[in-house]
Rho guanine nucleotide exchange factor (GEF) 37 (Amphiprion ocellaris), 793 residues
Amino acid sequence: MAVLIVIFNMEVPRRPQPSFMLALPKPASSMSAMGAVEKVTKKGPMKEKLERTDDQVGQGKRNSEEETFESGVSVFVEASADSSELVDTSTARTNSRLPSQDSFSEESSISEERLAEEAKEAKKKSEEEAAAAKERAAQRQLLAIEELVQSERNYLRMLQLSTVTIRSNLQKLQPPLANLDSMFLYIEEVIDVSGRLLSLLDQKQVKPGDPHFLETLCNSFLSLSSDIEAAYKEYLANYNQVTVIENGYKQKEALWNEIVKVIKASAPEVNATSLSFFLVMPVQRIARYPLLLQTIQKHTDPTHPAYPLLEQTAHTSIALNCRINEYKRFREVADKYKKTETLTIKDKINRLNSHSIAKKTARFSQHFKHETGIAAKLVDEEFDALEGFFYVLENGILELLENVETYLNHLQAFLACKTEEFDFDMDGEKAPICYKEITTALRQWILPTFEKRMRTLIHKPLCALRDLLVGPRNLIRKRLDKLLDYELIEAKSNLSYEEQAVANTYRTMNTLLLNELPQFNGLALQMIWSMLGTFSCLHKDLASDMEQLFQSFAQQLPHSSVHPAAFWEWAESAVLEGARRLQTLCQSVQDSLNSPVVQPLSPSSQRRLKQLTDKHGSGKIYQVMTTVVGSRDLDLNLVKGELVAIISEADTRGDKRRWLVDAGGRRGYVPNSKLIRYHQPAEDPPPSPHLTLPEGMSGVRRHSYTPQSQPLTITRQPCFQVLAAYDFTARGNHEVSVRAGEPVRVLEPHDKRGNPEWSLVEAGDGQRGYVPSNYLAMMPTGTGPSSSYYPYC
């Protein structure tokens, strides 16, 4: 039996070709049938050619070929091999497949064209969408840039409005507002840096839509980043003070209503009701820079030439805010611990509690362990060096301030002694007149100006610098306390919330001091050097003014035309001679002012004399000849004329130059060379009445050196006269000798110091001098020897 293959071909509707090709696997049944035919069929040349043609069409399109061919039904019957029938059957099959292959080729070419067109359209569409997205990003970038610039201009305008208009109107309020300037502290720096940023943008003359504007904006911000940080960090650190001051205003309702009225009148378009509406703007603005820059960066193409610069600017703004926040935190810690509180003992006791006692006990224990070497101390060499230099500066500043104050006090004392006001009866001499005019100019113009500049340029800055030392000193001391607390918890692995707060406080204070103390030390040292230089310049100006003053009188002074060498030789000899004469004059004045060693005692000295005599005997009484200033242990400080009693004529080491004395309760050592035995008078003179001029009697003050004298004018009949009750022998030029019963005339009932124990009298022979007041007595007229002096009545 032969295999009879009957193929029925019939036309079927053709399915529409999709726009894409999907290779599907060939059914397994057809594959197995074809394989059976190939095994039993003998291949001829024509059939091999057809099969090669089929292979060239392509194995990947078999599914499509089967779908495009005319559908037919093949019936395969197994039979014996018959080559002729088989060849006829193959030929008939080949003939039936040739038209289907031609149609497939045409449809494939059409499909490829469609695919190309569709790909081209999709590409064009994607390009259009990308361009639209890029255009939208560019528009958003432009809007973000314009928002940054325009908001900066509005921000600057509002700050200027608050600083200039509102502030000036508030300053006109009566009474003036307290601490108004403190609210606007550091805002001028913020306005300045904001104005400079806008100026840099305007100088480039580039609009926000220009591609180069973004680069200009980033370069301007980066160039001012350090100035922005310096201005804003000080303002933000001081902003808490702004809130405190404004709350103080709000507590006074009438005052606050006036302030709000002024604000609304000064800025009606803003509708602000408080100063904080304007003063909070820098706090908000510095935090808005990163947001605006990040928005610009988000809508900027990464391929943009300025994109790396924009990214750097955004990172810089974020880092700038972080540093400002850290600085503000440091300032809060510093403000908390640098304050100096003046507490009474009651306040300190009220603050004591179990927590504070435990904390102070732990600190004391830790400090004791450090001092005894039980526990190792945490050493920070960098901080120790800064601390030591700070204390050196502190001592130098305080000592310099003390020296300047002493200098100014001496200068004031010099100006208070106005010698030019005294008349020395030298009207006919030319040189003294010139000297008087020079002295007057010095005391009324040159030296007061010099003193004023000294106080303004040196004394006031030194006082301010001394006050600034308090804050760092308190922080250093507080750091030591926190260090002791930190050492107690340092070794712990797990810290509680309070312990973590203690550790953070110590680290913050330590970091703050390490950052700020070098700057403070450097500025303090610079100020010291500047003030010392100013001190030298002031003296240079003083010397120049004095030289100019003396040159105006040079022609009127003697020796003005002498050769310089001869002039300096004369000046040196004149100065030495003047010094010698001044020393002689000083010694003479000292001798005139000092009371004699043996003189009538005051009531207190008489009581001490009686006490010492009763205790030690009259032979042990000595009197101090000159003032004694103790220089060793157990030495006494005694004034001239003071009475002491000798206890021992040698000290504990056997030194006979130091005597142990009793000064009326005080005991100590005195050099024996400054003591003299006190000779008590055999009979104490009776106390004399207080000598005063009677009413109706006038006189001119006279001195022993007065060349002329005028007799006293008597207005009524005299009734008393003054006599010497005891003999008195003068012991110096300032005293006068009198004999008992000798009438004298009292010129002054006291000495030059106002001491009534000595009286200035004129004896019968015309000599004048001092005698003890208790050596004089008033007698009725006619009971004593006659005299030419008019007695008192």
User: Anything to note?
Assistant: DSSP finds 20 helices and twelve strands in the chain. The chain has five domains: 118-338, 378-556, 559-589, 603-677, 720-780. The CA atoms of residues 771 and 786 lie 21 Å apart.
